Amino acid sequence: MTGVAIVGAAESDLGITGESVLTLQAQAVTRALADAGLPLSDVDGLATCGVSRFSATQVADYLGLRPVWTESTFAGGCAFEMYVARAVQAIEAGQCRTVVISYGSNQRSARSRSLAGVVEEHTPEARFEAPYGPLYPFSYYAMAAQRYMHAFGVKREALAEVAVAARDWALLNPKAYRYGAAPLTVRDVLSAPMVSSPLTVADACLVTDGGGAVVLTSLERARDLRRAPVRVLGYGECVTNTSMTAVDDLTVTGAVRSGAAAFTRAGLVPGDVDVAQIYDSFTITVLLTLEGLGFCGAGEAGDFVAGGRTGPGGAFPVNTSGGGLSYNHPGQYGLLLLVEAVRQLRGECGDRQVPGAEVALAHGTGGILSAHATVLLGVDR
């Protein structure tokens, strides 16, 4: 358990915005600071990525900040959960006092999903994967899904349940991209256009603009601010691979180690979690992560999510905003996992609120099941 808390959380504009990446970043940062009741001048720490190789420099310059601590590690969608750990450590070490973690992307408006650079010659990806023309990252997650289904006898219907629950949550969230859409059924998911077997269009996340920000400071200071502080209880991370050729078992992810570290630091176990925000780049990502984090055993996630268990009114609420599958997915989704977790613990989610939520988990996944980071948050007691 740490002595640091999240005191502000907000989204930028979402969906199809027509805005620049820096504009979306600025929206998110200023809204999160307003949520915390803090001025921009209080920010002396900044963690961000997604703008360029010099993301922290560009965002700081755009906002007129002169931070004494920055972090811009690029690890895909889980970078922001990693930033929480770094921010906690920096604040506790006295390197800075107020950290903003931010992200913004205009992928939908720019009509681009590209986050990766050129594949360097002589790497495993270039030699053993790229010649076969896989769709990045779709084909890689499809391969993990194929292996998972084969190893444990799981049917495609189990994956579809993840997408159905996400849509049900999105229908309760006015900010969700799929808000107002028709409910999704298992049959809808299975009959959607196949992209890379066994994954259909409905098994994959959205492509949208969007972003968000969270503000962290010491727990002592947080207790004097506008909002009830959301305490950082624990964190952990694990990086496993870049190419699929480096993975011994596609059914075991780095969530095993990142989750174990987070629970140990927090002094908690999976059964203590009231609501979970789990990166859902694809439906298979959620099943593998639930197992890796210890919510169920190997090959059991299909049964774990069956019957609407992770949807509204279910016993274990997952991705209560609608997730990357139905709420928003601006290239890297990990920051928005934190925003929703904070709102659930504050009791601010209206029709999608989980009653009595006191412990929330946010787990990000980056690359092709390459990097993993887990954060446990709790109400201040």
UniProtKB/TrEMBL annotation:
Q: Which InterPro entries match?
A: Thiolase, Thiolase-like, Thiolase_C_2
The UniProt entry, under PANTHER family, shows:
ACETYL-COA C-ACETYLTRANSFERASE (PTHR42870), NON-SPECIFIC LIPID-TRANSFER PROTEIN-LIKE 2 (PTHR42870:SF1)
Q: Which Pfam families match?
A: Thiolase_C_1 (PF22691)
Which part of the chain is the Thiolase C-terminal domain?
236-378
State the Gene Ontology terms under molecular function: acyltransferase activity, transferring groups other than amino-acyl groups
- What's this protein's name? Thiolase
Q: Which NCBIfam families match?
A: PRK06158.1
Traced from the root, the source organism's taxonomic lineage reads:
Bacteria, Bacillati, Actinomycetota, Actinomycetes, Streptosporangiales
Q: Which organism is it from?
A: Streptosporangium roseum (strain ATCC 12428 / DSM 43021 / JCM 3005 / KCTC 9067 / NCIMB 10171 / NRRL 2505 / NI 9100)
